[in-house]
């Protein structure tokens, strides 16, 4: 009897052990692996994220198809892998061993169905009946959005790096100006996009295309499309993105031809293939309105069925005649991505802030008067840039002659709504001084 009781006690003790069972899931702190396709080839530039952590940014695979995810919320996760040309991969992340989980996704090829007529987007931003509409909270109710902002390039004096602190300061100044949009010239960083969105500022996200490329070459065109697909895959889920903007005044250089505009159509199709029915609008950044509607250059509506709107950089004291002509060239809406004048009177080498404010205010009123076709604009530019016309450490007077300015000259380094001067208080940052034009926009954009 004593032996039996002892056996029962030992059996009970063993059955109540606190050691984890083999099927208990251990949350990882690091998830890594290699992405390949069904042929065993590594896949670079695939977006790897966690569908179970929507705010986690994820990363792109490197040239060897490798990825390492860290600093994500503790949980049992599902890995998501996206890449143009492949079906989206979803896979459960296995239990961790010493904090590490390894998963090696295999992507299968995807055949795309691109509708002849581009459907209305069901995403957070869309063009509908020549109007820009947004649904940032995802409740299915769209609200009108009118672009009020600035061309954004905040390069410090001396061409120094742009720091996180400088970005934070720029966002605060944008808020005080009541801006809701910035326009970038190249691919914006995910961090600045997220910061902007948190303050209800959204980004016309630029895709830079080098002006020395031969756009007639198929290999060149494919490289541009691959680079654009990489950008869209990486940024499409970021709440800061307002739209994709292709190139910058390409029609003044290597894009004054049908090759550029047909490439833009192909790029817009690439964006649709990546994003699907929740696509962001795609626009072509044009110098003035030249070529728009020209079928010999593939710049007419029939040739650009996947382009949602045009963007223009236009410098004239009176924009109204250009808008009148634009209405006869296309049925697409227009966003003005550069307008205004600089703050320096080249005749006296003194600032004429009041003149800058008056001209910019006049241009803004002209933009508003064309609201049947124009969805707003980003004034050029947010801050002075000392690097543009000479030594990056000096405020130079270089530029070009123009009849669009009261003084007959554009001083490249004096365009800012905010004047930039060297650090005076020893904090390591340039001094920023809002000009009169800044306060003018602040009042008009309330």
What would you say this structure looks like, in words?
The chain has eight helices and 26 strands. With 446 residues, it is of the alpha/beta class. The protein has two domains: 78 residues, Carboxypeptidase-like, regulatory domain (Immunoglobulin-like); 299 residues, Glycosidases (TIM Barrel). The strands form eight sheets. An eight-stranded parallel barrel has the order 13-14-15-16-17-18-19-22, surrounded by four helices. Strands 4-3-6-7 form a four-stranded antiparallel beta sheet. The N terminus is likely disordered.
SSE layout:
Blueprint (H helix, E strand, L loop, with lengths): L1 H14 L14 E5 L1 E2 L9 E4 L8 E2 L5 E5 L7 E5 L6 E4 L7 E3 L3 E2 L17 E4 L2 E4 L8 E2 L2 E5 L12 H13 L4 E3 L6 H9 L3 E6 L10 H18 L5 E6 L11 H18 L6 E6 L21 E5 L6 H8 L6 E5 L5 E2 L4 E2 L1 H17 L4 E6 L19 E3 L7 E3 L6 E4 L9 E4 L1 H9 L2
Parallel strand pairs: 1-8, 2-9, 13-14, 13-22, 14-15, 15-16, 16-17, 17-18, 18-19, 19-22
Antiparallel strand pairs: 1-5, 3-4, 3-6, 6-7, 10-11, 11-12, 20-21, 23-24, 25-26
